[in-house]
Amino acid sequence: MQGFPYAPPGLKIGLLGGSFDPPHEGHVLITRRALRRFGLDAVWWLVSPGNPLKADPPAALERRMAAANALVRHPRVLVTDVETRLGTRFTAETVARLRLIYPGVNFVWLMGADNLAGFHRWDRWQTIMDTVPVGVLSRPGEQLRAALSPAARLYAQARLPARAGRQLPVAKAPAWCLMTGPMVERSSTEIRATGAWLR
Questions:
Q1: Cβ–Cβ contacts within 10 Å for residue 100, how many?
Q2: CA 37, CA 7: separation in Å to the nearest integer?
Q3: Where is the Cytidyltransferase-like domain (predicted)?
Q4: What is the pTM for the complete model shown?
Q5: What mean pLDDT comes out for the span 178-197?
Q6: Domain membership flag for residue 126
Q7: Using omega within 30 degrees of 0 as the cis cutoff, is the peptide bond preceding 22 cis?
Q8: Is residue 118 part of a domain?
Q9: Do the beta carbons of residue 14 and residue 108 sit within 8 Å?
Q10: Could you please report the per-residue DSSP string of the chain?
């Protein structure tokens, strides 16, 4: 489709969705780790129009896209406004549409462990788990809470061990894997609180 990234069948692509308000080095770290630990060909940053779980609207999409492009400089990382182009609001919709547009592409939904802890509050979260493999990357202080989350407990049998992480992109959903490693003690919320990123 015109205006959409090119991705031939067989590629292994990680999808890192979020408001990126603002993007920061933590996003870059988990992206690089996902490329390596899950054996991905590319990671797409899906800069969302807004987060349905947050009351306050984010900064302008153009500003967040520009900041993300300035921050992440990697040949296999693409910053995209594909959700705006698709007109989707929820992850389940986005994943379903991308799988239709890109048949044969092995998508992996990427998230921080903090997101897994609250994943059960997402719209149609079980549909996401049943549709696409999920790669979870550790964030400060969230590993235990994530491992004990409702999503982790319900899908305990679908969890791959970390040593099998490179099998995740071709695993049949439901399948998920939690990776631990170096972490950045920073978040978009904290950056906004300092006044360094004004809306």
A1: 8
A2: 21
A3: 15-193
A4: 0.88
A5: 57
A6: yes
A7: yes
A8: yes
A9: yes
A10: -TTS----TT-EEEEEEE--SS--HHHHHHHHHHHHHTT-SEEEEEE-S--TT-SS--S-HHHHHHHHHHH---TTEEEE-HHHHHT--SHHHHHHHHHHHSTT-EEEEEEEHHHHHTGGGSTTHHHHHHHS-EEEE--TT-HHHHHTSHHHHHTGGGEEPGGGGGGGGGSPSS-EEEE--------HHHHHHTTSS--
Of residues 24 and 40, which shows the higher confidence score? Answer: 40
* Bond preceding residue 174 cis, omega within 30 of 0: yes
CA distance 56 to 73: 29
CATH code for the domain of 126: 3.40.50.620
Distances (CA, A) of 76 to 13, 32, 146, 170: 10, 9, 28, 19
- Residue count of the chain, please give it: 199
